[in-house]
Design brief:
Elements: H1 3-31, H2 37-65, H3 67-70, H4 76-106, H5 121-150
Amino acid sequence: MSYKEKSVWASLLLNLAIASYYIFHLQGLHANSLLTEETLTDLFVRIVLMLVVWEIILQATLALIDHKESDKGEDERESMFKLRGNRNGYHVLTAVVFMAIFILWKVDFNEHRLAFNELSAAMNTLNILVVGVLAAEIVNYASQVFYYRRGY
């Protein structure tokens, strides 16, 4: 397995763990009636910081372990895998953004709330966008893993 493929696997597993952490904590806050705009904002900040810090730690560790191959650039095949993964993740992100725009446009928030009645329309929409970004990143890295495993 090449260094780039190991890097993609690490990022995929990290994004899956962060998404699981986010959904688990969001569900826990909601179940215990502790979900407010402040607690959701705190959760957003935590997942962003966790994602950045853990990504730096994982990538630095991989580079230290496989320092000879980490200095090599991408070959054409790896570049193509990355581009295809980015394309697939972009499609997911675009769909989520259009869904959020449609919801803001069509839903009467005085009568209905989206997922969480405790939150404002803006925070509900922000929640949809955060989940969408996480899903897009997971699709991006999962696509790259698929192309690495397939080999072309």
